[in-house]
Amino acid sequence: MARFQQSDSIKRLPEQFFAKLVNKIEPYYQAGFDMINLGQGNPDQPTPDHIIKTLQTSATNPVHHKYPPFRGHTFLKKAIADYYKREYDVELDPEKEVAILFGAKAGLVEVSQCLLNHGDTVLVPDPGYPDYESGIAIAGAKQYRMALKRENDFLPDYDSIPEEVLQKAKLMFLNYPNNPTAGIATSEFFEETVRLGEKTGCCIVHDFAYGSIGFDRKKPFSFLQTKGAKEVGVEMYTLSKTYNMAGWRVGFALGNEEVVEAINLIQDHYYCGMFGSIQEAAASALNGPQDCVHELTAIYEDRRNAFISKLKDNGWDVDYPKGSFFSWIPVPEGYTSEDYAELLIEKAHVIVAPGNGFGKTGEGFVRVGLNCEKHRLLEAADRMINVHSKHL
Question: Which residues pair with 214 in a beta bridge?
Fold first, then answer.
């Protein structure tokens, strides 16, 4: 029997963090335990009805049964530009500054292949979304990890990065509201980031996946709202979180014309275009009533308040998340992130994501998702508190 060797680029890929987590908890489900899964970022609410109805109606249109345009329908790109103008007062050229993505995750992997050569340096947040590393690994580039610390509101300290690293950096990933820390960026921080991009020539990629989820009446900033942002980088947005469309796989890369063209070009070779009816549904989401977005954010904020208040009332040193649908919880003294996550799985039947899975600086924390009904979150909090009283 022939043996086929994997390519070097495949061998460089890191272990898929969330697949590993799923494999770890599967035996507990098989054994019939009542598990509360707070370890993944999968929206639990349904896609709004008007978006679903658009898909259902559009799917009968024979125009969409043929290959769509490689780079997407003009009506969707215009809807994206209109959305950014309405929500952030950002002007976008639909044809030159918008690339339609098969989910933002695809774009975050593709951009490394578009801009990096073997041995290039990339600045990545630590802790950060694990799949940034995937595209970097495929390209054969090197990472420099920027520590996101609680005492600095989970923003990187650019002054701490050695000058020789800054001068070599070809690409930087940022993500606010942040996964996993739930921190948010300020307009001043984005201004500093643009200056850094102008000084070094490093391309800034801002992952705005949780852009619609800001708490305490504070709307998260888009990187593209910053003067000069389109000259130094792009922002990637997704409908997954804003409209509970995770399974639909619709995202966008927005901003710098050269980067957008590179992403469009690589996708010309990967895909034959997104199903037109999904594009119509995506346009319906962006152009339609936004009450569903505000209601969803209110649900997450209510869950956040209930869950964090319960922990704080029982003496936990934990901050209220500022955005996203995650909580970043310090682990008890004497435990590593993985030890504590395993303790909660075994004794509380509560699943959380160990912080070190997001990077070295994530050690000492676990990530808790707010992706289940409030009563289940409160039950999870009770179970966690009970474990503390019995085992710590």
Answer: 323
